[in-house]
Amino acid sequence: MGQITLQGVQKSFGPVHIIKGADLDIADGSFVVFVGPSGCGKTTLLRLIAGLEDVTGGSILIDGKNVVDTPPAKRGLSMVFQSYALYPHMSVRGNIGFGLKMAGLAKDEINRKVEAAAATLNLTPYLDRKPRELSGGQRQRVAIGRAIVREPKAFLFDEPLSNLDAALRVQMRIEVTRLQKQLGTTAIYVTHDQVEAMTMADKIVVLNGGKIEQYGSPLELYERPANLFVAGFIGSPKMNFVTGELAKQQGAATIGVRPEHLKIECEGASGWPGTIAVAEHLGSDTFLYVDAGALGMLTARYIGELSLHAGDRVSLLPDPARIHRFDEGGNALRG
Amino acid sequence: MARMATTRRVVVSTIGAWFFGFLIFFPILWMMLASFKTELEAFAIPPSFLFFHWTTENYATVQERSDYVHHAMNSIIIAGGSTLIALLIAIPAAWSMAFSPTKRTKDILLWMLSTKMMPPVGVLVPIYLIYKSFGLLDSRIGLVFILCLGNLPIVIWMLFTYFKEIPRDILEAARMDGATIGRELVYVLTPMAIPGLASTLLLNLILAWNEAFWTLNLSTSNAAPLTTFIASYSSPEGLFWAKLSAASTLAIAPILVLGWFSQKQLVRGLTFGAVK
Predict the structure, then answer these.
(1) Distance CA B100, CA A190 (A)
(2) Which residue from A65, A196, B150, B175 puts its CA 20 to 30 A from A303's CA?
């Protein structure tokens, strides 16, 4: 079991409030991603759950038991650090087995479990190497091995892939997701990369300035962002925001349209006219950055190749069903 | 062209390094040579570098006149003892400052170092009097104590810098893995800190071995280490350079051998923070 509940969790460092009251319910076996810009408090929230920081207020329940006064090791969680934090003087075997050794398991059992974990992660040939003799990806796998071998109630990942190159990151992303599904263990994963968040999570927690902005499944966040911050943060390229008369016509202070929901038409058609400032041709997609006069710069995305170039005049037609409306406080208007 | 310039630079810097290395080593070499000369040749001008009458009589005289083993034992006990006690105090001190620093940690470190800025002679009289009333004059315990205190700031500084290099994440990982503070120390921190501990130990041993101010002033015969043994050859009877050289060579021999075999550790200790 690994159900984690946060109730009014607060954290301050001196006069600085890092976490301003977080309430969250993480179901057993789910993969939850904390995402947000740097300094939003996502790593702090993870460390509070781990027990590496003490809460200033509120409670953290693991399987219904309040653990705020329980030391990290007794919470039954394991953590994968951004820097891997491997023990440099121990072999891969020693690193993976360290937690079991601390738990006082018999040597045979430790060996059996370490070898099983190593096999899952394709680390068997490296068991007797030291961390410095491994590549970045292998070190990352050792750190994950160290986490899974203890069969914890939940895994905590603190930006574990940010030190890897782009190709390896995609590969490890898939491996981590598959491993979590296979083990069925609850996982909390911190990242600032929204693509990682969207692809890996069952549910995403969007944090900003120490507050939870929204908690929901990736598609929920994409389709029904709770406010301007979430709308702008989730989705790439960013959602276009339009204020003024056009928004008022829709009964909102701001309206938002995602680049992929803007239909690109020839000049003169109905829609928002503008001049292409930059056109990016990726083959699979075409991104147009359009100067739409009073509406500002708008981004439009076309799936496939579109032979338009900077200086061409176009008209952008928003999909009426996909227009997001926000009130003056930035909160989404429904209905 | 570029390659030639590089080669020339390598040659010049190698020659330069050897030259300065030899310059620094020369006094020791000269002392060793003088210890094999007769008293007359040791004085001779112009001095003879290698072509003199080699003799070991100085060593024999030194052995006869004073008890080398007694002084060497004292040196080992005083240098070793003061180093071990200093480490025992410094490890937890440096530890807590490196891993749970407070607002005042920097000030404390500077304050500790500032005690080394005071010339020892400034406190000689009070310390002498205190030692006298506690019966610590000419005792090994007394010398262990004063050398330990004298080197403590440096030992703490060295260990502090070294511990600071140990990433916090690793300690947190150990805590997540269920290690108690004691086990964290035994299984994770100490093994990672061993190179730093070793270089600190060596450097402190050398400093304590060569320390002359306090050992000369606070000991006469019982607790007298090798520094006193050397000094006894620059006696009122006049300077006996060859014998003085023989005594000095004998005195530095153990530490020279130790230093030679631990060069790597020492360099690491002296370049803390500069190289990762």
Answers:
(1) 26
(2) A196
